[in-house]
Design goal:
Layout (H helix, E strand, L loop, with lengths): L4 E5 L4 H12 L5 E7 L4 H11 L3 E4 L5 H7 L4 E4 L13 E4 L7 H9 L3 E4 L2 H6 L1 H8 L5 E4 L2 H9 L9 E8 L9 H4 L4 H4 L9 H9 L1 H14 L14 E5 L5 E7 L4 E5 L5 H9 L31 H11 L3 H17 L5 H13 L9 H24 L8
Parallel strand pairs: 1-2, 1-5, 2-3, 3-4, 5-6, 6-7, 8-9
Antiparallel strand pairs: 8-10, 10-11
Helix pairs in contact: 1-12, 4-6, 10-14, 11-13, 13-14, 14-15, 14-16, 15-16
Bound molecules: NADP nicotinamide-adenine-dinucleotide phosphate (NAP).
Length: 402
Amino acid sequence: MTTPRVALAGATGSIGTQTLDVCRAEAGRYDLVALGASGRNIEPLIDAAREFGVKVVAVADTAAVAALEAALPACDIRGGRDALASLATEADVVVNGVVGFAGLDVTLATLRAGRRLALANKESLIAAGPVVRQAWRTPGAELVPVDSEHCALHQCLRANDNPSRVSRLVLTASGGPFRTHSAAQLAEVGIDEALAHPTWSMGPKITVDSSTLMNKGLEVIEAHELFGPGAPGGPGVPLDAVEVVVHPQSVIHSMVEYTDGSTIAQLSMPDMRLPIGYALAWPDRSAVASGRIDWSQLARLDFEPPDTTRFPCLALAYDAARTGGTAPAWLSAANEVAVEAFLAGRISWARIADVVAEVLDAHDGASADSVGDVYNADAQARRIATEVVDRSVGAGSSGRAS
Ligand SMILES: NC(=O)c1ccc[n+]([C@@H]2O[C@H](COP(=O)([O-])OP(=O)(O)OC[C@H]3O[C@@H](n4cnc5c(N)ncnc54)[C@H](OP(=O)(O)O)[C@@H]3O)[C@@H](O)[C@H]2O)c1
């Protein structure tokens, strides 16, 4: 058996550095051949390139190319808009750990090259679902989710061969740091509080998304794209059968209910190295455990319904999924702009949902049949979201540092 060649896009981020951990833990099992990142943060990229002896390093920002060439003379250094997507043909498996819409080109290039996509970058699937599904039908292309909930569903779906026997997909949500906050408390939360996730350590954007429950909303759409009607090889579960339950311990990562009432759940410690290793090893498994459950310490598993009054982003995501077309792209783009504005201290946490809602109110009903449609939708939604944010700032809705 040959050693699978792995390319890692988003190598300097939370998913990226944990992918490096997985490759270290199973030394010799994977051949890490290429790394990619934005180019804003080159020291960790250089360190990882040297440690793993990678052949290619790609950065979106061409200004970083000269410094990388000087530090890594034996590497093929690529820069520019298409640089990360060019990694797809260098490897058998591409881990997409880029954050936000910027990950779309890597997702499409990997699937179109007929390679395995280990997908953490949920935003590309949400913004461009129909286009990604088209690319996914390329002979040889595989899509294995890295998001822990979808990795859990992927595992639970292996319990039965008849897709028509799946009745419900249940995504678990930790509830984030503000699960028990009142509406009055939510109006006052600051940036540091939103960045303090109770169970997961992740990059800033997804951590804020977890605090608003937008992350769970994005994951509902992600589950719909991966396992809904028309998804290649999936069980065709309708959107209304994709549910969310709050489970603060983050030990059950999601569940599949079958027509006989059996529910199959996947349990493990909250550690992203497990789903990353799963996507790399699939259909085999990692030989190394990423944490083990100590049943003597696991006193209880709690569940409660999500509250869409205090956390309206979850309902907004269901609405966008029902609308379809470019509505999910608008939702995701508006959210990226709003979260960035919150992290810059320009708007309050509570305004994030308002910005997304206002942008979705302006949605033009366009479809998402081509990459061009998706790029136009993203640009249009960002423009409107920026206007809404600027108006909010003018009206005095600023964020707090802590
Ligand atoms: N972190 C988790 O535990 C987790 C769990 C489930 C799903 N995810 C998903 O995985 C993705 C990554 O999340 P993260 O938490 O790892 O984010 P992160 O820590 O912020 O890392 C983001 C990575 O993307 C790169 N990047 C940013 N903008 C880019 C651009 N324009 N072109 C190329 N590369 C760019 C960054 O490079 P620089 O450092 O050079 O800027 C960095 O390597 C997100 O879609 C998130 O929703 C994450």
